[in-house]
Amino acid sequence: MPTLLVITCDKSPYRRNLRFMQLAQNNPHTLSNDALWLCIASSMVDPMEYEGLVLAGPDIDGMASCGSKIIIKGRRGASKRLEAFWREKKTYESLEKLQGISIPKSLGLFVLRGHIQHRRAPDAALVLVHCGGLSLWESQSPQPSSLGFMSLPYTTRARIFDSIKQIHDAGFRHNALDLRCIMIRPRDGRVFITSLSRATPHSCSRNRSLCIQGIWEPRRHEYGCDELYEMRLALAIGWLPEIIRFGGRDIWMCEVQVDPARLANTAPPSWSNDKAIREAFKALSRYAKTYMTWDPEYLQFIRDIRPGVIAMYLDPETRLACRSTDIPPPPACLQEVGGHDNDNGDGDGKGDDDYISDLATSIQAL
Question: I need a labelling partner for 258 at 20 to 30 A (CA). Which of 249, 286, 357, 366 fits?
Answer without folding.
Answer: 357
